[in-house]
Amino acid sequence: MPLLELENVEASYGPIRALHGVSLTVDEGQVVAVLGANGAGKSTTLRAISGLVRRRGGISFAGRSVARARPESIARAGVAHVPEGRGLFDDLSVHENLRMGAYARKGEIDRVYSYFPWLRDRGTQQAGTLSGGEQQMLALARALVSRPRLLMLDEPSLGLAPIIVEELFRIVAELNKQEQLTVLVVEQNAEVALSIADRAYVLETGRVAVEGTADELRRHEGVRKSYLGY
Amino acid sequence: MRRALTVFNLVVIAVLVLACALIPQHAGELTVQRLTYVGIYFIALVGLNILVGYSGQISLGGYAFFGIGAYTTTLLTLGKPGMELYGHHPPSWLPLGNGMHAIFTIPIAALVAGLFGYAFGLPAQRLAGVSLALATFAVAVSFPQILKKFENVTGGGGGLNLNLPETPFGLDVSVPHWLYYEAWGTAAVLALVAWLLLRGRLGRSLGALRDGEIAAVSSGVNPTAYKTFAFGISAAYAGAAGALFAELVAYVNPDTFPASRSIILLASLVLGGVGSMYGALLGAFAMEYLQIWSENMPFVSKEASNQAPAVTFGVILILVMFLAPYGLAGLLRRVGRAIIHRLDTKTVALSQSRRAEA
Amino acid sequence: MILFTVSEVAQQVVSGLATGAIFGSLALALVLIYRATHIVNFAQGEMAMFTTYVAWELMHRGMSYWPAFALTLAIAFVGGIAVERVLIRPVENKPILAIVIVTIGLLIALNGLAGWIWGAEVKAFDSPFPNTTWDVGGVAVSTQDVGVFCVCLVTVALLWAFFRFTTVGLAMRSVAINPTAARLVGVRVGWMLALGWGLAAVLGAVAGMMAAPSAFLDPNIMLVILIYAFAAAVLGGIDSPVGAVVGGLLLGVILNLLGRYVDFIGSTLRLPSALAVLLVVLIIRPQGLFGHATVRRV
Questions:
Q1: Considering the domain boundaries, does residue B136 fall inside one?
Q2: Which of B22, B90, B281, B305 is deepest in the core (most CB within 10 A)?
Q3: Residues of chain C whose pLDDT is less than 50?
Q4: How many CB atoms within 10 Å of residue A131?
Q5: What is the DSSP string of C116-179?
Q6: CB-defined contacts A:C, below 8 A
Q7: Is residue C297 domain-resident?
Q8: Which ipTM value was assigned to this complex?
Q9: CATH class of A1-78+150-158+184-230
């Protein structure tokens, strides 16, 4: 049984329909990537799962339907969503942000320092004053504090230098390998996303256009031409 | 469907105008007087609507400009001789003249109030949101106090008595009816003016400023000019309303214009529906009649306690916001849209079935 | 001739600080709610007045001061939560003017209700502080003023500690900063908001009970104090808790000094002149003394 299953999900922002029936599955222990151009509906998919946008259709997490659940309960059930823009509490300190990660699910902050040792020294620094890359790491660390069952990342590479992106994805891949952390990552940077993914979906204007394993997508001519550049 | 809407609006307006003209013939004197108040408040609310609904600024001080208009009319109708008769000695530089009929004071009262409004708008445009709300409220709160302080001009706490209203030009109309037609005639003219202004550049610029100031400014809209103009014209309308009010009531004093009335003015506009003329009209009715109903509700009337009507009033405000957060006009609009939608789909279905038969 | 001696001025400053502490407490209540929800709770003063009447009722029935004080705070807390859940939650996503009108409706209704239940005649309200004065280096300081100042300060300090050191306080701060992100870490935002209203009501109750002894209790005492609190909050920066307290204290002192030493002002123009001072500050610095200048990103 998949950990996360979407069945024909529609989502709208007011009168504007953004998703026109998206179906996808994420099995436990997998890394699944959602690719696509701007406006394809990738972020909306994550927001639909988290309950941040009006949605219809079947969404089940760990066997239970969450199609009508509020964002707070979905988070408490073990879905850690790192949104576009990172969703940090800018005016709070690094340590306070991490404490908020532990709020709902009795997490442990110390665990996370092994992946991000530098966070220990920056505990009192205001989160808003960190660099872009550091903020993304902090957002990821905060998500991990809650020992989530599913980690959802929304465009983590946005605005970051390639070397930082590489480091970030290396950590995510390691988390998946060492702790069997299930990951759903939405990315415009198809290459780096496919490098750590087991399976992937390509969205176009709110619908799934292509799906398959990472290898299959890398060989798929349309995907190569449109998203991988060769 | 747009044509249907325009036709519908024209029909409604025609009916309203007709009703307005004919009511005094068939209604009792009390109703005529109450409806005169409604007309007066309507003028003030049309002005407030321009400020709050179209330019998106907030004002908790509208009634102060209403009061400025009222006092202007009072001073002008009394004139120097009238003031001295009552024992007041206004400064000589004030151009009071010898007293004139109230109807001529309306444009002057509007102008005076408008200038004060504009003068307030100039520094106030640096403020927004909560700060602006406070600033306008400061005006409302300070107004009665300032009136009390400058006794020479305003008659201080004791206020000023106007001469009782008279029908001018020797017309054969009773005084209450004259006052009614004067108020509604002015209201019609001013509403038309507002409508024309808002249809044109003013309305578009204000709307642009309200919806996205930076974008509007980049497109060449001068925020200072339009924002202060909105304050000025809103105050002018309130002033005109105040002028009619003073003529009707024939007595003004600082306690006639407390800060709470400014709040009630805004609340009435919101109840009626911000952003539309119909909203201003419904709000004017609310402003006059809500208080009366609150005082006559069973169990919660003045008999239970002097304070009981206030409870009703407050509860009604809350309930209306629950049921119609866009005001009564908003509610009617939704109902109307639903009806038109039904009719639309029915006609489409009808024409489709006719085509199928053919 | 007005005595412009140091001890005179000091006296005015001290009593100004006491009234300022009351303004500051109510202003902090306004800021608390505004930070979390961007709503100005116009009914904050009347909620405070109503809970003060509750305290009066408790003492009238024989309860001694401090137990009645504590019980009133508890009632205010529950009342604040109830107001948020019952009256504000249904309209929280509606246009801001609609929410404003709901709070105004509550203001009017509470004012009427208090008059209905307890009558409009003025009542005496006990003060826990003796009616004495201390001599501090030539300045006559009233015990009442010191007491009021201390009670308000302690309340504010306890609240500060709550926000700084507890997890729930941290969660509430996070809601004020980024409610969506708070949801995503599992914070029940709705209940945090209700909690904020509860705490604000407690602040209001303290302000009311501190103001009542000298002002005598009637349904309208908090109306003017609300205006001053509103002014103090905006002066300090409507989103700054520190600003609210400092703004309140400053306003209290300015009011006293203006009323005493500027002849033209006297009692009629006290409020308008304080507001005028405030507006001048705002025009120079629209975000208030401690507020954040809004940087608008295009």
A1: yes
A2: B281
A3: 1
A4: 11
A5: HHH-SS-B----SS-S-EEEETTEEEEHHHHHHHHHHHHHHHHHHHHHHHSHHHHHHHHHHH-H
A6: 66
A7: no
A8: 0.93
A9: alpha beta
Q: In this structure, what token pair is assigned to residue C110?
A: 């509470």
C173 CA to chain A: closest CA distance, Å?
Answer: 8
pLDDT tens-digit profile of A51-103?
A: 999 999 999 999 999 999 999 999 999 999 999 989 999 999 999 999 999 99
Tell me the residue range of the domain where C134 lies: 6-284
Whether B351 maps to a domain, the answer reads no
Find chains touching chain A: ≥3 CB pairs under 8 Å.
C
Examine residue C228 and state whether it is found in any structural domain, yes or no: yes
In the stretch 116-155 of chain C, residues with CB closer than 8 A to chain B read 116, 120
Length of chain B: 358
Chains in contact with chain B (at least 3 beta-carbon pairs closer than 8 A): C
Q: Which of B149, B274, B322 sits opposite C91 (nearest CB)?
A: B322
Q: How many CB atoms lie within 10 A of CB B11?
A: 10
What are the tens digits of pLDDT across the range B90-113?
Answer: 777 777 777 788 888 899 999 999
The three state secondary structure string of chain A is CCCEEEEEEEEEECCEEEEEEEEEEECCCCEEEEECCCCCCHHHHHHHHHCCCEEEEEEEECCEECCCCCHHHHHHCCEEEECCCCCCCCCCEHHHHHHHHCCCCCCCHHHHHCCCCHHHHCCCCEHHHCCHHHHHHHHHHHHHHCCCCEEEEECCCCCCCHHHHHHHHHHHHHHHHHHCCEEEEEECCHHHHHHHCCEEEEEECCEEEEEEEHHHHHHCHHHHHHHHCC
State the pLDDT at residue B199.
Answer: 85
Interface contact A92-C180, CB threshold 8 A: no
Q: Which residues of C touch A87 (CB under 8 A)?
A: 178, 180-181, 184
Residue C53 lies in a domain: yes
Domain range summary for chain A, segments of one domain joined by +: 1-78+150-158+184-230
Q: Which residue has the tokens 């942000």?
A: A97
The amino acid at residue C9 is: V
Interface B-C, measured as beta-carbon pairs within 8 A, has a size of 137
The label of the residue with tokens 């800021």 reads C31
Do C31 and C239 form a contact (C-beta atoms < 8 A)?
A: yes
**B288 token code pair:** 């006059």
pTM (two decimals): 0.90
Mutation for testing the B interface, residue in C83, C84, C101 having most B CBs under 10 Å: C101
pLDDT averaged over chain A? 92
Print the domain residue range for B219.
29-267
Q: Is residue C290 part of a domain?
A: no
Rounded to an integer, the average pLDDT of B72-82 is: 86
Predicted confidence (pLDDT) per residue in C86-136, tens digit: 999 999 989 889 999 999 999 999 999 999 999 888 999 989 998 888 887
- Between B356 and C182, the more confident residue is C182
> In 3D, which of C109, C112, C48 has the Cα closest to residue C76?
C48
Domain total in chain C? 1
Counted domains in chain B: 1
